[in-house]
Amino acid sequence: MAALKKSFQLKSRDFMHAGEASISVQNMLKQIGIEPALIRRVAICAYEGEMNAVTHGENGNFRIEVNTDKIILDISDEGPGIEDIEKAMEKGFSTATEEYREMGFGAGMGLPNMETNSDRMDIESEKGQGTRVVMRFSLSPGSRKNET
Amino acid sequence: MIGEYVTFQLDKCTGCAHCVKACPTRAIRIRSLKAVHHPDLCIGCGECLRVCPEGVIQSNVESRFPLDPDKTNAAIISPVLYSQFPDTMPCDVLRAVKEMGFDHVVDLSFHLEMFQFAVEGFIAQNRETRQAPFPLISPICPVVIRLIALKHPTLLDNILPIRRPAVMIADDVRKKLQSIHNITASEIEIFHITPCPSKALSQEMVLKDEIGSVDRTIGINAVYPELCKHVENIREMELDIYDTDPFANIPNARGPMWSKSGGEINPLRDEGMLSVSGLQEIRRCLEKIEMGVFDEMNYIELRVCPQGCLGGPLTAVDRHMAKQTVQKLVRTFGVNRRLPPYKLQRLYDRGWFFANIRPSDLTGYYPDQRQALTIDQMQEIENLLSLLPGIDCAVCGAPDCRTFAEDVVRGRARRSDCFRLREIDNGKEGDT
Predict the structure, then answer these.
(1) CB contacts, 8 Å: A41 with chain B
(2) What domains can be seen in chain A, in order of their start residue?
(3) Which residues in chain A are closer than 8 Å to B151, comparing Cβ atoms?
(4) What ipTM score was computed for the predicted complex, to two decimals?
(5) Taking CB atoms and an 8 Å cutoff, what residues of chain A touch B379?
(6) Partner-chain contact B373 A31, CB within 8 Å
(7) Measured between beta carbons, which residues in chain A are less than 8 angstroms from residue B368?
(8) Which residue of chain B is at minimal alpha-carbon distance from A30?
């Protein structure tokens, strides 16, 4: 079965290049004719995830896999981890410092946004061990323009 | 017809590929040492005009304009024109245009103010309900609209559905002229003097509403030499602050300010507004809007030309000088509001400002000229990319290695067009 895989290394706190993996994914999905509304959902999730890994994590890894029936975004880092995942999922909850908030991040909407925009989201995290977020999007027949 | 904004005079083309690399939609390739343009991907941004060292590429905006003496000729002046003449009152610039033989010259200041009122009105009306998608995107720059239609169709709904000032005024002027001179619409010719190469086809402008609003467009650079003489003459005359042309209004600096980046949103009261100019910045900005980065913003002014419209390819004066002139005009004439809000509100409530056809109707504007790739083809591109030199040298005729790989996979280029692949395929290094 055809599968397209691509991965990117994310550099910690490199805000100059943060977002580039997401943009590259966005462009790739456009080229293979994924339905625009779905691309937008993937792009929002990709960007939030990428920013989280760049902001909080070390040695971030960003992977995308496109199969005929689904898209998987797998973003992981070796950062501080999330202490209380349930709490982190609450809208508006944020551990961001004042400095990050001033940059426009850390409004506490990242994870809730990612959950709303993906079809399924799984978080694995342990304090001090890093975080891995896997998001899945199902590709229904017709969500691509030229299904072969 | 889409995309016929520029003409290539290929006899002069040396195949240098400057245009190929400059094109944001990758609509140009070099084949047999000559540029090949794909108009179905062209958004009329004019980047190729700027970079061509041989003068091969020309804008299809008219450069000569014999006026028809049997018609009533009116010229709508892009506010950028004022920025081209330092230390000259805007009303004197209008007089100079009239000296060129136009029956009427039309200033946009009041219509800019009306447009800006409508922006504020629309935001206020939709901010709480969030019925319209935010951030709203300014409908002013036609290249931005086409870039969205081609590359970011999900953002078409974000485009503010308000008519552009030049369109509002063209309709107004046509009606007014008919009643003043008691003539029919066909006896009127409306010109737009503009810095923008993308308005070449007045029949194929951004929104379908705009079809036929302007009859002919002329580049500022085309009128500049003659205009300079008239401006010089008028500067020699005594101060005259009275004007007899009903359409000349009395321009304030709202127009000049509008012509530089930020000038559209600057006089607005609302918070949450951004202004972005320059092609690279705009492309990045649109990607970010699509990723939800600017969801909290209300309105984004986007201008493809660097520094705003006064950086347009069809201007005559250095854009930094022009900016300086604008700043002086703003200090002297101000950007005060001059129209009574209750009258504007009445127009707004009547729906006068609204475009009949929403920008989202542009969805089919660029037909699916590029068949989507299959997953296998996409993987093939990635595989090919790992063999390519990755230096984007453009010797193959494509702007960059990724585009070349795509061309090969789509059967539009040969592997042997790339020097590196040629080496590999000839077995010189033998490792594939």
Answers:
(1) none
(2) 4-138 (3.30.565.10)
(3) 30
(4) 0.84
(5) 2-4
(6) yes
(7) 145
(8) B372
Rounded Cα gap, residues B72 and B190, in angstroms:
8
Peptide bond into B359 cis (omega under 30): no
Q: Residue B72 contacts by C-beta under 8 Å, 6 or more apart in sequence?
A: B103, B104, B177, B181, B183, B187, B188, B189
Distance (Å) of CA B283 to CA B148, B239, B288: 9, 46, 9
Instruction: Say how far apart CA B375 and CA A67 lie, in whole Å.
Output: 8
Q: Which residues pair with B42 in a beta bridge?
A: none
Q: What is the residue-wise DSSP string for B1-58?
A: -TTTTEEE-GGG-----HHHHH-TT--EEEETTEEEE-GGG-----HHHHH-TT--EE
CA-wise closest residue to B3 among B63, B56, B46: B46
The phi and psi torsions of B127 (rounded to 5 degrees) equal -65, -45
pLDDT digits (tens, 9 = 90+) for B59-69: 888 777 789 99
Fold for domain B1-60? Alpha-Beta Plaits (3.30.70)
Q: Mean pLDDT, 10 residues at a time, over chain A (148 residues)? A: 87 92 93 90 95 91 94 94 85 76 69 93 91 94 55
The residues spanned by each domain of chain B are 1-60, 72-364, 373-432
Pick the CATH number of B373-432 from 2.60.40, 1.10.10, 1.10.15, 1.10.3470: 1.10.15
Distance from CA of B396 to the nearest CA of A (A): 21
What residues of chain A lie within 8 A of the CB of B366, using their CB?
A: none
Helix (H, G, I), strand (E, B) or coil at B260: coil
Here the tokens at position B406 are 């795509």
DSSP letter assigned to residue A136: E
Report the residue of chain A nearest B370, measured CA to CA.
Answer: A31
Condensed to tens digits (0 to 9), the pLDDT of residues A71-90 reads: 999 999 998 888 888 888 88
Which tokens go with B65? Answer: 């304009």
- pLDDT value at residue B360: 66
Task: Give contacts of A 9-28 with B, CB under 8 A.
Answer: 19, 22-23, 26, 28
Smallest Cβ distance to B379: which of A4, A26, A30? A4
Check A47 against B406: CB less than 8 A apart: no
Q: Report the alpha-carbon distance of residue A108 to residue A94 in Å, rounded.
A: 4
Interface test with A, best of B148, B152, B284, B291 (most A CBs within 10 A): B291
DSSP code, position B200 = -
Q: Does B367 touch chain A (CB under 8 A)?
A: no
